[in-house]
Amino acid sequence: MEQYERVEAVRYGRVPKKSREAGSCSEENMSICVNSTTPSVTQLNGSLGNGHTNSVNGMPTTTTSISNSSSNNAISNGTPNAMSTNSCAEISTSTTILPDSLTFTPPELSVYDIIQCIAQAHRAHCTYTSELVKEQNRISLLSCSDKHNPLESLEEQRIWLWQQYAMRMTPAVQRIVEFAKRVPGFGEFLQDDQLILIKLGFFEVWLTHVARSTNDSTLTFDDGVYLTRQQLEAIYDPEYANALFNFTSGLNSCCLSDTEIGLYSALILLSDRPGLVETKLILKTRECIAEALRVQITRSRANNGIGALQIMPALEARVHELRMLGEKHSAHLEWFRTNWNTIRLPPLFAEIFDVPKCEEDLQ
């Protein structure tokens, strides 16, 4: 319990207006905790109780009903662990957001308010903005590590590469959750729907962000460390690595600004997913985001109207491409779900992708 209390955590999403249960719920029982500094000791659905697991896109997804208990429950390997509500402290940011935008649904905001709100949220929580990418000092993964033994078997090398890959991807979970909190309308969704959108949309949003620092042969993380195409082929397989690079190349060819990437990220986050309850509300909110993206693209390309009209259909087509990449990424993780007791992955990475965790990871 003391370990949980030492962890600085944040709540994503405001109190939903509706619960899956008919009765009203107290505010302290309707928050979802995500660890902000030490992901190994808290989970995405930390303060939700009475969880049960469904299969979504071929991967298990924990969905929950709100518990009226005064204590929060962390879900780990399907077993609730008590966690004090006091450990769920909200972190404030120095970024100025529009006046509490989550108390308004998108139709109540103007298109330009939505653009401004999401643009600010993206710049506050994305580490792949054009300015930050420009400042990167790139270094190869092998150059920055002294633990990799080239004499290891191919399987051992692949596991090591996966661990390095996962370690550098994991911090983005917290940032994307913080971004989601600030997407107008997101806090109005049921908590179960919020959880599904975050878990199934995370990889797609992350890949959209990292595309900015990806070229035809390397993928560079926000710390400047890069993976080569050959290393990604070892992590996944040549076909998937090629599809990943094709997506990033196609997205980069659209020459989106940071504001447009932010709006596109929100569009991806609010995609229709299996298991959602309030699909119509989510898709209505998504339509508002799509309109804001269309306005921003047209406004920023006033001198090239034909080009602007071509970009939006191309982006919509890449949403489907992203969905396929996300599903195949989940399939690649199936080996880790089967052999979870022999490998170590960052606990929050394991949580977002439903990979079981060793007991020592939860200490």
From TrEMBL:
A GO cellular-component term linked to this record: nucleus
Pfam families reported in the protein's UniProt record: Hormone_recep
Principal subcellular localisation of the protein: nucleus
Domain NR LBD: 110-355
Listed InterPro entries: NHR-like_dom_sf, Nucl_hrmn_rcpt_lig-bd, Nuclear_hrmn_rcpt, ThyrH_rcpt
Localization (cell): Nucleus
Family: Belongs to the nuclear hormone receptor family. NR1 subfamily.
Protein name, entry field: NR LBD domain-containing protein
